[in-house]
Design goal:
By secondary structure, this protein is mainly alpha-helical. It has a domain of 112 residues: Cytochrome c-like domain (Cytochrome Bc1 Complex, Chain D, domain 2, Orthogonal Bundle). Helices cover 56% and strands 1% of the residues. It has 21 helices and two strands. It has a two-stranded antiparallel sheet. The protein starts with a helix and ends with a helix. The N terminus is likely disordered. One of its GO terms (molecular function) is heme binding. Pfam families: Cytochrom_C (PF00034).
């Protein structure tokens, strides 16, 4: 205890040189890709590094300054400890930071020595707008269905009650005067209003047929479908809060027919250095431990050992539940829409939805994915839905390729479709041909 006290006293002036608040910002901006305060990642844990180096190697902050600014040069000078660290961490070269001033490094060291207490968690952010909207629509639909069912149930109860009365009358060997009058009056009423009754029954039959047909038409339409996944992944946190580009994970959407489910190695590109969740955003009912637990599932799936910072080779495949799935007889090319149709689709969507504009082409079909905690199917994805898009989306004629390719066609279409005011939609260039989408 005396030794530790003397060490702290002897190094106290060093700790007073930096600003821990500014150091925290610099640490998160420059160091968190490879370092944490309390555990080893790609590099060693940096909590208490000043005192540790002083005690173990008798090195002061001047050595740390040299290492941070240009560790390669420090190793080339023959510095023994610098080369030992390089060998110990599998000869992984640390990034050079010549842009950091001495004051910046002192601030970072102050943060590693005396980190400020964490800020209190913010009030939980409400669930995403897309999910809230869907739940509102579902609630209204449920009320309509409930009222309709109650009305039908009431009619059936009344009908059953009347039939019960008639059955009792038929079972009676002798009709009382009152029953005779009731039976006679019912027969007269039926005979008098039989035409009206048949019309009502016919209308009910038509209504029932329409309901059945409408039900058939919506088979395979799963708008609002949002299944639970084996590993919880919030697009709100990744694409929304952290602004990660969709195509960083779904890279084949730009270059191929299918937008693939990212492999777990794509997740590990970031989570190799992010073993726990420290973000400010928290969903209602979830804490940081929940998100950290999901990150550990990624490690289990990929066979990543945190302690040794290496792969064990023991992997565990993840069985994701697919959400968007085109029928086999439908041809849909993501690249064609993401690349060639990007500006046209975004422009068309924003014209039709001025209060719900998008900035990424993916959102036109998949909804505002960057606000979804649990991904759901945001649109119908029916044939009619696709055709309507082709009818209303104008071809981007500011594109140099399109200008050259459609130069002759443009004038022809103006004459053929004078009401279009010279606008070329996708339907006018073959977007309505069956063979474009069906084999």
């Amino acid at each position: 205890m005396i030794t530790i006290a003397l060490l702290l006293v002897s190094t106290a002036p060093i700790y007073a040189q930096g600003d821990a608040k500014n150091g925290e910002k610099l640490f998160k901006a420059n160091c968190t890709a490879c370092h944490a305060l309390d555990k080893q990642l790609v590099g060693p844990a940096l909590g208490g590094v000043v005192a540790r180096l002083k005690a173990d190697q008798n090195l002061d902050t001047d050595w740390i300054h040299k290492w941070v600014k240009n560790n390669k040069e420090l190793r080339a000078s023959g510095d023994k400890y610098a080369n030992e660290v390089f060998e110990k961490f599998n000869k992984t070269e640390m990034q050079l930071f010549p842009n950091l001033q001495d004051k910046d490094i002192d601030d970072i060291l102050e943060y590693t020595t005396n980190p400020p207490p964490p800020e209190p968690d913010p009030v939980a952010t409400p669930v995403d707008g897309a999910a809230a909207g869907a739940s509102g629509e579902d609630s209204s639909t449920s009320k309509i269905i409930l009222v309709s069912l109650l009305a039908i149930a009431g009619l059936l109860i009344a009908l059953m009650f009347k039939i019960g009365q008639l059955v009792k009358l038929q079972q009676s060997e002798e009709l009382t005067a009152a029953n005779a009058r009731n039976a006679k009056s019912f027969a007269q009423i039926y005979e008098k209003y039989s035409v009206v009754g048949k019309i009502i029954l016919g209308a009910l039959a038509v209504f029932a047929f329409y309901g059945f047909w409408n039900w058939l038409m919506w088979i395979g339409v799963y708008k609002g479908y949002k299944p639970e996944q084996p590993i919880y992944f919030s697009h709100n946190i990744h694409a929304g809060v952290n602004k990660i580009d969709c195509q960083l994970c779904h890279s084949s959407a730009k270059y191929g027919k299918v937008s693939e489910i990212p492999s777990m190695n794509v997740c590990m590109n970031c989570h190799k250095m992010i073993p726990e969740y420290k973000g400010k955003y928290l969903e209602p009912g979830k804490d940081r431990d929940f998100y950290t637990g999901e990150i550990k599932k990624i490690y289990e799936a990929t066979g990543w050992d945190e302690a040794s910072q290496s792969y064990t080779g023991k992997t565990k495949p993840v069985q994701w539940t697919r959400i968007h799935n085109m029928p086999d007889f439908v041809y849909f090319n993501h690249a064609q829409h993401v690349v060639a149709g990007e500006q046209a689709i975004i422009s068309s969507h924003n014209k039709k939805n001025p209060d719900n504009k998008i900035d990424v082409v993916c959102k036109a079909c998949h909804g505002k994915i960057d606000t979804m905690n649990v991904v759901q199917m945001a649109n119908d994805f029916t044939m009619g839905w696709c055709i309507e898009c082709h009818r209303t989306t104008e071809v981007d004629m500011t594109n140099g390729y399109n200008q050259a390719y459609f130069s002759g066609l443009h004038d022809k279409l103006k004459k053929q479709y004078p009401s279009s005011n010279g606008k070329i939609t996708v339907s006018a260039i073959g977007g309505m041909e069956c063979g474009k989408c069906h084999y």
